[in-house]
Amino acid sequence: MPSLFVIGGARSGKSRYAQQRAEDSGLAPRYIATAQAFDAEMTVRIARHQAERDARWQTVDAPLDLPHAIAAHAAPDRVLLVDCLTLWLSNLMLAERHMAAALDDLGQAVAGAAGLVILVSNEVGQGIVPDNALARRFRDEAGWANQRMAAVCDEAVLVCAGLPLKLK
């Protein structure tokens, strides 16, 4: 089945675009959430995202083992919306996981999935150079991950100011 990579900056409309594409597919939607509510602000963000999805959606939490969640929930009659890749990368970094191996596993899971897989990610490399080593490492890891997932997916779309631009 095809796969779609959706990338954009903060508040670009990428999640809304990806959700609309999932709903328009006519397949049974599953939301694979990578966020973790470590503080009140993140709890509010998660609740807002949940409120934007109707009863058709089932949610799967996968803050660390995203490849397994994709493999376990993919089906020919289902669309998986993964939101988002950069939060997953943050979780991996905090857990001190091996990034390259995790990305290899994710690429294999997406490529081998039955049904449609939509990956959402943040473009974090178009701003200023971060002033600390951890933030620079995150920016670099996200850039490499975005390149790898855009290459794996059949289609890639950049969303800017709510407008989609097909890249691939």
From TrEMBL:
Record keyword Nucleotidyltransferase present: yes
Superkingdom as given in the UniProt entry: Bacteria
GO MF: adenosylcobinamide kinase activity; cobinamide phosphate guanylyltransferase activity
Coiled-coil residue windows: none
Catalytic activity: adenosylcob(III)inamide + ATP = adenosylcob(III)inamide phosphate + ADP + H(+); adenosylcob(III)inamide phosphate + GTP + H(+) = adenosylcob(III)inamide-GDP + diphosphate; adenosylcob(III)inamide + GTP = adenosylcob(III)inamide phosphate + GDP + H(+)
Any Pfam family matching the protein: CobU
Signal peptide start and end residues: none
InterPro entries: CobU/CobP, P-loop_NTPase
UniProt xrefs under NCBIfam families: PRK05800.1 (NF004469)
Similarity field: Belongs to the CobU/CobP family.
Descriptive protein name: Bifunctional adenosylcobalamin biosynthesis protein
Organism: Novosphingobium capsulatum
